[in-house]
Structures are given as C-alpha cells and as structure tokens.
Amino acid sequence: MTPIFHMISGAPDPVAPFSHATEADGWVFVTGQMPFSGTGLDTGYPEGIEAQTHQVMHNLQTVLHGCSLTLDDVLQVRVYLLHFDADYEAMNRVYAGYFAAGRRPARTCIGVNGLAKGALIEIDMVARRPQAPG
After folding, report:
1. Has domain 4-128 been given CATH number 3.30.1330.40?
2. CA end-to-end span of the chain, whole Å?
3. What residues have CB less than 8 Å from 42, skipping those under 6 apart?
4. What is the pLDDT of residues 50-73, one digit of tens each?
C-alpha cells in the first residue's frame, strides 16, 4: 500500500500544510473544505450559513472530481459549525439536497468555537473507490 497525496487543480488553496485528499487501499480522506468562493485564500466567503454550506459542498465536489470520485462514493462526513444552535437546521436543509434520501453517508455534526479564516462551516469526508466485480 503506497499512499497517494492529492493536490487538486481548481480547489481552494489549503489554509495550512496539508493535501486536499490522501488515499490508501481505495479509501480517500478528503480534508475539510472551507467556503472559499475561489482558489485563493483571499477570495472571501459568501454570506450566511446556507450560501457557505453550498460553497463548501461545491469545493468538496471539486476535490472529489479531481480524485475521479463523486458524492455517491462518500461513506462518512463530519460537519463543523461555528454557531451550532443557530445554523444547524439551515445547514441541514442545504446539505440534504446533495444526497439522495436512503443513500446518505454516516455523519457527525460538531459545534466548534472557531474555524479557519472566520468560516461558519467546514466539512470533511471519507470516500471509497468502487470495487471492480470479481
């Protein structure tokens, strides 16, 4: 097992020294994405939890696509919310639209006291490459 360290063109620049995703034995660990609206760290965030949730999901899809994966390959998600009580319901309404009912990944949602660059939300994922029949 040789690990692969993915840096994805078109995904936001990392806010710290890490890869966009790492991979071993078909498991792909996607680093938490922030709601940057561009690739640079100075592009800013959209306003409000709904817009930031959409942007984070877009950024995650960019990383997954760069690894030749989709949201259908995601098995586990962690959501980090700066204002848990205020934003939980609105985030869930947006998040639910990205996964088919009955086919949603396992998920943990955590309230935190700070996120990089003042974001309201960060989401990371674990995906698995489809296994060839046989």
Report:
1. yes
2. 20
3. none
4. 999 999 999 999 999 999 999 999
